[in-house]
Amino acid sequence: MASSGDEPQVKKLKTDNDNSEIHARLEKERLEMAVRVTNFKFNKKRVQMMSKADEVPDCDGVLYWMSRDQRIQDNWAMLFAQRLALKNHVSLHVAFCLVPKFLGATIRHYDFMLKGLEEVESECLSLGIEFHLLFGEAKEALPKFIKDHSIGGLVTDFSPLRLSQQWLEDVKEAIPKNIPLCKVDAHNVIPCWLASDKQEYSAKTIRKKIHDKLGDFLTKFPPVTKHPYTSKYPAEPVDWIAARSTLEIDLTVKPVEWATPGTRAGLDTLNEFCLKRLRKYATQRNDPNVKALSNLSPWLHFGQVSAQRCILEVKRYKNQLKESVDSFVEETLVRRELADNYCFYQKNYDCIEGAYKWAITTLNDH
């Protein structure tokens, strides 16, 4: 079948070198969007101001408090933080707050996350961005960091979970009132609070709301580029072995071996899916005997790969594999963002009281 535009020929792309091709292509594609983020028309609807302050005071730097979205490129929160730093001619810092335990996570989860963060540190170093691994809850670690590093602006990513929302509120109360605090939904294509203003009943009720907004939000990404302003407070290299010693978690559930952590490996998996398994996705994804799934869940869960990037890549095959592309978009966009909608608007999302009345009635009847 003939294809138009820049759509690839699926049958011609099965070579051993395809994974290296995706990284160079995406780097070129980002630069074609803008030389740097200040030359890009950033959609400010992605941003929510969490503070009354909206101007960065005299300072040494801007901080991106990385939490749910653990990657540098294809990250709207990271891009907004660099944009803010460039506009104010100051340095750029990234901080991740490592807590000793989190919602029952085991070493399987922490190992994947920490190895991904090692890649984040390495990429930050190559871009002149200071990466800091902080220990303990954000409400204690971030205010001290902000004071010690003369930070004048704080940007963070979005999570609908109760604990993460509480962390954000605690930090908001603890930092100086003259520092702007901005929240950017870098996990969903459509910011959760804009996709719908209420808890949606089903995929059917949210689907049109999401698709109607794709023109504004399903865009290509500009690059996070080499940062030109250095800090008076350079980061110390992270001691990752010492970081692991602070964990208070179950060590018996061993790390997975089939999935390599980090953005680069995640993009390799995405590319392999497009080339080898996407053609089977529509009709065979529920057959456990067929390799038809994307296998992207670990990288999406830790924000090491952007769901928006996954959708943009898969849509390149729209003319040739329409049914599979549509099925993947339905799962990765509509169904996935419906889950965030539920957790964001339903405060009892993790207990039976959060279920609809008909569901509770059915359970009681049986």
UniProtKB/TrEMBL annotation:
Pfam families: DNA_photolyase. This is Photolyase/cryptochrome alpha/beta domain-containing protein. GO terms for molecular function: deoxyribodipyrimidine photo-lyase activity. It comes from Cherax quadricarinatus. One of its GO terms (biological process) is photoreactive repair. InterPro entries: Crypto/Photolyase_FAD-like_sf, Crypto/Photolyase_N_sf, DNA_photolyase_N, Photolyase_Class-2, Rossmann-like_a/b/a_fold. Residues 60-192 form the Photolyase/cryptochrome alpha/beta domain.
